[in-house]
Amino acid sequence: ILNYDIMARFRRRTCIILLLFILFICSIMMALKTLRPDRAGFGDPFGLGLLPELQQRTVLLDNKQNSLNRIQGDTATRVTNLHGIAVNTMKASMPPVNKLEEELSSPNYNFHIFYYSWFGNPQFDGKYIHWNHPLLPHWDPKIANNYPKGRHNPPDDIGSNFYPELGSYSSKDPSVIEAHMKQMRSASTGVIVLSWYPPGMADENGEPTDDLVPVILDYAHKYNLKVTFHIEPYKDRDDRSMYHNVKYIVDKYGGHPAFYRHKTSTGRFLPMFYVYDSYVTIPEIWANLLTVSGSQTIRNTPYDALFIALLVEERHKHDIHRSGFDGMYTYFATNGFSYGSSHHNWASLKAFCDSNNLMFIPSVGPGYIDTSIRPWNNHNTRNRVNGKYYETAFSAALLVRPEIISITSFNEWHEGTQIEKAIPKRTGQVVYLDYKPHKPNVYLELTQKWSEKYRKEQEQWLM
Predict the structure, then answer these.
(1) Which residues pair with 164 in a beta bridge?
(2) Which pTM was predicted?
(3) Is the dihedral angle over the CA atoms 14, 18, 23, 28 positive or is it negative?
């Protein structure tokens, strides 16, 4: 009888523990479910981890930067004859026996990814560029006084909360460019949206990079990728300068086989230009360039193109329409930061675009953190949640059935939106975030997974 009582109590205790464990798991699943966007209808996202990331900070035993094989020589070719360079580059750049095609996912030309070629290091540039980014002060002096000042000191201390697998690389390093192209192709993206300033111009922390465009085009072609341009807000950007700069890009790079042209609903193949911070220029100026009757019109000329404006506030949609733009994108990888970047507004923005013959290009990102350069901006941090945040954004984008999805970003390390491979690193008092418990290529794999999902969903939309 004693043994029977002991066994009965043991069974009751076991059942209670098991019931509590099941309730605990259910509560976690319900909490994670709140990460999904409203009206999500595409099944469960690809689960990469049930628990929020704990910002695991592991000591890096090996700095992999020096282990990379550096490819010497300059592969850049100058465009002197547009037809000739297209043919010659195609012959020179094709990989042997289509080996790359067998190893990598097919490119999805409806997945556009923002790319930055502004990084430099002493080996290739004589100094560090952008990795030594300054700490930007808050505009309110009282708040600014509470935060550190100065700039970062590479290679161990860089202007990013994450650390790249390739180290503090130079964007001019051919081995880096090729590694980037291979990563983007493995992610099944198809179009590189290259940050661009006119010749001789750059952002306030960088150096001119237009000379690097031919090299990027050549390597992109090798991996069957296309390149379009993300025109930055350079000094004195207006209708006249934009006309000349678009003409420059088309004349110099338009004959390259990697130069992106988008097939329109009318069957035309037109270049596409993303215009960052387009809202700082009034609609009347843009209308001079982008409407048929404008004084500087580019319409119905050899330089006509699709121009995509940045939408931040809701009112910008009306300005974009009046300006003569062909579409809008949202860029920011911070759900809730702006009207445009808030997932729940994408349906109404898509409806507005559909009714006004505009393209709507939502921008998805894996997360956001820029406190390495804006230490006062914690409130805009968006935790990656082991990939769950990224998948939530993709799910929200697919809900509105866009013709194109843009990805912010491949390598904007300052703002922590990169999907490029990152590694754990600890040095001195600096501890970097990483992608653990997953591998450095986890966001490339997630992008490839959603690229395939997009293709399948698109087939259903077109039926």
Answers:
(1) 422
(2) 0.80
(3) positive
